Structures are given as structure tokens and as C-alpha cells.
Amino acid sequence: MNAATLSAARAGLVSCTTCRLLSRPAQPANPGYCPRCGTALTWRHHNSIQYTWALVIAAAIFYIPANALPVLTTTTLGSTESDTIMGGVVFLYTSGSWPLALIVLIASVMIPLGKLAALAYLLITAQRGSVRNMHDRSRIYRLIEFIGRWSMLDVFVDAFVVALVQLQPLMSVEPGLGVVFFMAVVVLTMLAAETFDPRLIWDPVERGERHG
Amino acid sequence: MGVETIACPDCDLLQHVPPLPPGGKARCARCGETLLSERADPLDRPLALAVAAASALLIANTTPLMTLSAVGREASTTIIGGAYEMWLQGSEITAAIVAFCAVIAPAAHCLFLLVVLLAVRRPPAPRWIGELLRSAHFFEPWSMTEVMMLGILVALVKIAQLADVIPGIGMFAAGAFVALLAGVTATFDAREVWKRVEWADGTVPPLPPAERAGAVR
Predict the structure, then answer these.
(1) Which of A81, A108, A200, B168 could covalently link to A154 via disulfide, CB atoms 3.0 to 4.6 Å apart?
(2) What is the pTM of this model?
């Protein structure tokens, strides 16, 4: 990094997270509120690393019942059949629509797992003050933020299958407990992406400059 | 106008951004995040699209998405009907989240933006529109109409073997809403609103030169 690299925080300026106005707080320890929009100002998100870890760990725990428990239970004239998320993917594949099977596999299995792994990686490297691969880490963060909502796909699929297939007494579909856990995984990882402060990725650059 | 000093929201790097031509974009010199993008018509065009999006949303939520017929019986559902059926089946939490992501968040996102765009036309813009704009940004990631549409497509393929499915008006309206709302976010520039909003400490921002000239008829 060249000598012109200066972060707002190091220059004594804080950027409003809502309206992005730069202001210079009178008391740096307690930056107060944005003079334009009134948002509480912070140098970095409060306890970003701890909150994000808590959400990531909770999501990782919920991920297990989300995949093990059934998401849909179909009752047809006395016989009952339960499907997990992977079961749904296999069903789509065997019923001949492999592009949709692939989309559901990516949205329901690969994106949540990838998000958990990526957030853990961002957290560990930020905690250790790593100055390697910072561009890639910024890019990973933006990807997580952008793509996370698509994991909700399976929840919508289950909701509309349940809503439409109510042809009692011939056939009915009930949502399983797996949906609740799966939804918790998606919501928690989305919140985790919001609590993680991407500026923490770049902060070690200036710490290094100051010491060296 | 002139040079603007901005801190990158993703890496906090301070940088000076020169005036950009309409359609121009400034990226952070360090992490590559988009700092600014100058829109050609940052308030009128998104307003027109937001009015259209709000109408499409109204239709999407009040007409059936699709009708399913099997062995002589018919069932149709609206968006909120999908969530309600989940509720009846005992998944109250799932129903609440589906209703939030498919109905409440898209509606809040679209309507708050619409009100902001209407209120900002009369200078000085009142302070509460800042609050609305902040709420609109809060709802944005949770507004999942396009995810819902893909979800419906997958659900239809799953059901297709059991019954005939006829798409309803609601489905087309939801598709139009997705496209129109994407248009709103692509043409809107929140900076233009912030420039006009009355400050929290009571200061009224000066009118941009272009508007002052326009005001003299």
C-alpha cells in the first residue's frame, strides 16, 4: 500500500452507515449521531466478530436437523411418505428436470454450506489480522451478501406445494419440522452477513503501517 | 457539486471522487466496491417505475397465482394464501417468515421508496423521509419476490405429475413487479434524496443549482 492510503477512521472521520455523510465527532470515544440523518454513528459495527460468530455457530448447529428432518410429508390414501431436502433434489432429478434439481441443490445445500465456511474464514482471518488475500476476501463478502437470500428457495417451494396440494381426503401434504430449521439457517446466515463489518478485513493494513 | 470526499463502505478508504458523467461509476481504488454511480435521471424515472411496481404488487397480491385441478377438484392460491395454508398446517413460524419475505418486505420496500420519491419533489424535503429511506434499505434484502417466483416454478414441477396447473394473473403481475422494482433500484440514487433532506440539526440544505434555475419560470 502506498503512503496515500488513509482510512476515514484513521483520519478521525466516521462515515454514516445510512446516508454515508462523513463527519468528525467531537468525542472520538462516543461518536454520537449523524448530523444529517440522525443514525447512531460507530467506527465499526459493535462487537462485529462476536455477534457474527454466535450467528454462524447457531446456523451450523441448525443445519444438521434442517437436513436430517423431513421438509414435506405426503399422505396419499393411507400411505405416508416423508421427504428431506436432499430427497426433494433426488425427486426432481429422477422426475426428469435436472436443471431444477441443480438449482435446488445449489440454493439449498451448496449456498448455506459455502456461506458458513466463507463467514468462518472471514472471521478467522479478520481476528488474526491477516493481510493476505484482502481483495478476494472483500469479493467473498460481497458475494455472500448478494447470494444469501436465494437459499430461501426451498422454503417457498414447500410453502406452495403445501398450499396447492390439499385435496382431502385423496391427498394432502404437510410441512415437516426440517423447514423450520432450514429457515433458521437461512435467516441466521443472512443476519451474520449483516453483522460482519467488511472494513475489518482492511483494518490490519494500517495497523501494520503504524507498527512498521 | 465538484469533488466529493467519500469513505468506502466496504473498506473505509478515504478518497476524492471527481464529478462523474451521467451513467458513470466510481469504484473504490482499494477493494473495488462501487462508491458512486451517477444516474441520468435519479428521481423522476424511479418514481415512474415505482408507481408501476406498486400497481403490479397490488394485482399480484389480490389475484390467484395459479389454479390446480385434479380429479375434478380445483384449488387456487394467492401469495398470502400459501403462507396461510402453512399456518393452518401448524407451521406458524414458517408461515410468518414466508409472509414477511413474500408480501410484507416487498410491499414495504416498494411503498416506502414510492413515498420518499413523492415527498422529495417538494423542497425542502421533510426529515421523516430519511427515516423511511432507512426503513426501505432495511427491508431490501428480505424482499424476496424473485426467489418466491423460482420457488413456485419448482413447486409446479413437483406437482405437475399429480394435477394440471394453470398460471393465474397474479403470477404475471408478480413477474412484472420483480422487473419493475429492479428498475427502480437501478435508476434510483439515494444521494439525491439525502442532498435535499432537512438535516437532523435543523439546517435546510441549499437547493442544487439546476433546480434553482428551474424554479424561476
Answers:
(1) A108
(2) 0.88
